[in-house]
Write a structure and sequence with these properties.
The chain has one domain (4-106). The chain has 3 helices and 2 strands; from the N terminus they run H-H-E-E-H. It has helices at residues 12-42, 44-52, 95-106; strands at residues 68-69, 75-77. The chain has a two-stranded antiparallel sheet. It is elongated, with a radius of gyration of 33 Å.
Amino acid sequence: MPPIAFRQDVRPEFRRRAKFLMTVASIAFLFLLGRLFLLQVFQGERFTYLSENNRIRIKKIPGTRGMVFDRNRQLLVDSRPSFDLLFVPEDANDPELTLRRLAHFLRKD
């Protein structure tokens, strides 16, 4: 028996349904291809910017403790604010200048 594409006795309804299904699948594929093109070519810079800035997160973490005393009311531990600084050279236009400016601000008197 030859493959169904070469048979002459295939019903016209089946051919019509097959053509309709292929048309719908082609339109869906072209829609997805067009959307991919739109995102890559026309909105690529926007998504590059968003992804680069997605790394920075500012999160406040409140201290969970206060001061700790011993049984004689001697202060053992006190809560002090502390800060961490992370320098990523790839994010700076001029890393040397940025480091010099940071050194100026971080000096303790």
